[in-house]
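User: Could you check the structure of this?
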Amino acid sequence: MHALNLERMSGIAHYATSLLDDVIPLRDVSHADVVRYSVEIPMRYAECFGILACGRKISLVDNRHFIGWSCHSAKRSLLFRNREVQVEIQVDPDDPNSCNEPGYVRDIIVKPKRDKIINADALRKFIGIDGSLLVLPA
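Assistant: Sure, the predicted structure tokens are below.
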């Protein structure tokens, strides 16, 4: 069994938060500063916020980048779209590998943006920001 290389893991976490800062930036802070992510529905459309350790709620630079989420529980996926990429952030506060990561991020999946789904064998469902159902290939 291999020993956990903490320096390598720290480098991976830094790369991941830098990627998020570039693709779906927050206002005035880094994703590395986020302790958890929150989805709220203040009016008609849902919004995603980063919550800092002090309790301050930070919005995305462009709220239109947030397009949906998988469920209302703490273990969920948040879906974003920017330029030509789609970013899924999988959050799980109970996962031992993500409990010390910024925002409890367990995994980040980056894919090319898809406007239509054609002949998808496996589908994943998300709640759209307007409450509609989003169906994407797995």
